Amino acid sequence: MNLPNSIRRCPVVSTLLVAAITAALLTPQAGAETILKLAARDQVRAATGEFKAAETPIAWDANKTAIVVCDMWDKHWCEGATRRVGEMAPRMNEVISAAREKGVLIIHCPSSCLDFYKDSPMRKLAQQAPVVETRVPLERWCHLDTNHEAALPIDDSDGGCDCWPTCKNYQAWTRQIDAIDIVEGDAITDSAEAYYLMKQRGIDNVIVMGVHTNMCVLGRPFSIRQMVNQGQNVVLMRDMTDTMYNSRSKPFVPHTKGTDLVIDHIEKYWCPTITSTAFTDKPAFTFAEATQPHVVFMIGEREYETNVTLPEFAKKHLEPRGIRSTIIHADQADNNRFAGLEALKTADLLFVSVRRRCLPKEQLDLVREFVAAGKPVIGIRTASHAFDTKGEHPDGHDEWQEFDAQVLGGNYHGHHANGVTSILSLAEGAEGHPILEGVSVDSFIGGGSLYQVSPLAKTATPLIIGTIPDHPGEPVAWTHQHGNSRVFYTSLGHISDFKNTAFNRLLENAVLWALDRPALLR
């Protein structure tokens, strides 16, 4: 009999538990409709020391199985966490409803919200379970067990909020989210009562779902570590969970990838995982952001306040289009360093608002590699001299003086006087370009000084021309093809430009054009 590797491997699971699981899988069950057929994915350590995923079919008696719904609160202090719970909850409710019909006990565990349910029969059901002896104490929290597991694969030391700006930490939750039904026959608790109730009902099998894998899903008294330590047969429903992880922290991967890494950790050291397909016959649930285009904003300039305007632009104009953003600011202590720039490794678009910064070589290499891979780039205003420090930089740092000419297709060599506004007009032949869709160029004027950029590279296509009195016009927006990279640049980007609807539409269109996904996102 091949049991899931994590169950065999866990040191707190005794020989008796293994025998019990074997018996459960071999013993004929009365009433085939009560048998849950699950595909349990596990991580098996190969002879090389590397882990490899393996799937094992298991069969559990529904009447000896409980689903634990971990901390699916109505609201979280993190806006992103609240959004993802709301997105996942309807599917979770389908799973719970189907499992309930098969005879699975549903235990709702909205931690620290029990007063809301204090008079309900579901709360009283959990309270009436008699206390039983436990193998090890069921604590309010079970921390990382260094004797049993490696360190978590993500850095959640900042609280794990992936929003920008960081949300304020406070207890926002009051109850479980309303999208998940709680009916008579279910139980409500947030303590060892869950285990006592399982023992009262003869329940040995536990399916954990809810949030967050790196925190409550692992640590609560009703959740993975502590249920495994009590000898229960535990699986995590991996598509019905989330993680508190900030993608600007190590290992600098998208949020949903951070969740995947913690799921791998759980499979390696604690228990197998399953998906909701076993109960719904639908494909495994995925968050919308898992397939959303990903834009990395690289911001490092002091003149035009793009540290404020660009995050606001991303939230207002890109997020509604299904485009997620990672904002990378220059370090306040070292304005040549951009912590978290490793996010470029999984980004779909680089958006640059940087002025004369010489990056550590390994960070500038990330930018070079991104461009060399043929991925799109957008630059505004000072991006024309983003990495040009005129040959002056400390050891270990690097510059890219040719970024403007090579990548952006520009030719920045100064600017006209400040305070002289530019009159804008369409470049010859630019009519009908998708970046100009819905943009009334005549409705706004350039807020900053007019950059001197002529002549552009022969491979650049001007879209908008800026003109000031007594001087020839200068391109202020154009496209460029650098290898396989779609590139858009505009010398606009003054703080006053962001107050104009037409400018924001121009940037929004440019992002869609650069990603080559306008039809998908509109």
Key traits:
21% strand; 2 domains; elongated; Rossmann fold; nine-stranded mixed sheet; 522 residues; 19 strands; six-stranded parallel sheet; single chain
Number of helices, counting only DSSP H or I runs of 4 residues or more = 14
Count of all domains: 2
Largest sheet: 9 strands, mixed
Query: Which structural class best describes the helix and strand composition?
Result: alpha/beta
Helix content: 25-40%
Characterize the overall form.
elongated
Topology-level CATH name of the largest domain = Rossmann fold
Q: Largest sheet, order of strands side by side?
A: 10-9-11-13-19-18-17-15-16
Average pLDDT number: 89
Number of strands: 19
Assign the CATH superfamily of the largest domain.
Answer: Isochorismatase-like
Residue stretches low in confidence (pLDDT < 50, at least 5 long) are 1-32
- Tell me the β content: 15-25%
Question: What is the terminal separation in angstroms?
Answer: 53 Å
CATH class category label of the largest domain? Alpha Beta
Rg (C-alpha, Å): 28 Å
CATH architecture of the largest domain: 3-Layer(aba) Sandwich
Structural overview:
There is one protein chain. The protein is of the alpha/beta class. The protein has 2 domains: 5-283, Rossmann fold, CATH 3.40.50.850; 291-521, Rossmann fold. The protein is 26% helix and 21% strand. Strands 10-9-11-13-19-18-17-15-16 form a 9-stranded mixed β-sheet, with helices on both faces. Strand 3 (65-70), helix 3 and strand 4 form a beta-alpha-beta unit. The radius of gyration is 28 Å and the shape is elongated.
